[in-house]
Design goal:
alpha+beta
Length: 172
């Protein structure tokens, strides 16, 4: 560390003096440093690097950072180290995830509506048939079968109604 800004001090809750002159691996947790190390090596090889780093902070909360390493060069082009730019993008990432969940739920709702509509079309003749056939069937066992078909079709229709209501975002 050659320079530390106020945000870094606030994040680690320690003064600049604590960091200046120390190596990165001395400051960060081993698990965090293990993630940083390959990017750091690339920056020390002269490559500008950018990545997102997700972590649980010392306060137990979720954080996501947009991290950029920009090589610092001498006048002859030799890499002396790198500048580390870290931006807290936690709110954006959480907002994007919530939007994605909402979009998925909307897609599931549209799919549910489509399926319910198609199944309703298939079920309609089954719902009409028992009433139409009741007068033609004389056998008590046949009438019981028609009652069973009608009862099952009505239960199916009730399930489809719930599915349609879910798809439209309605409540009962």
């Amino acid at each position: 560390y050659r320079f530390v800004n106020r945000y870094h001090e606030n994040w680690f809750k320690d003064s600049r003096r604590h960091f200046i002159g120390r190596k990165v691996e001395e400051v960060h947790r081993p698990s965090t440093y293990a993630i940083m190390r390959p990017y750091s090596r690339r920056a020390l090889a002269g490559e500008s690097v950018r990545y997102e780093h997700e972590m649980t902070g010392r306060d137990g909360k979720y954080y996501c950072f947009d991290v950029q390493y920009i090589p610092r060069r001498a006048s002859d082009g030799t890499v002396l180290g790198y500048f580390s730019l870290v931006f807290d993008v936690t709110e954006r990432v959480l907002r994007d995830r919530q939007l994605l969940r909402t979009q998925r739920l909307e897609s599931v709702g549209r799919l549910a509506s489509g399926i319910a509509h198609d199944l309703n079309n298939i079920l309609s003749p089954v719902l009409m048939a028992p009433d139409l056939l009741r007068d033609a069937v004389r056998d008590p066992a046949g009438k019981e079968l028609l009652d069973l078909i009608q009862s099952c079709a009505l239960r199916g229709a009730a399930v489809l109604k719930q599915l349609l209501m879910f798809g439209r975002g309605e409540e009962e």
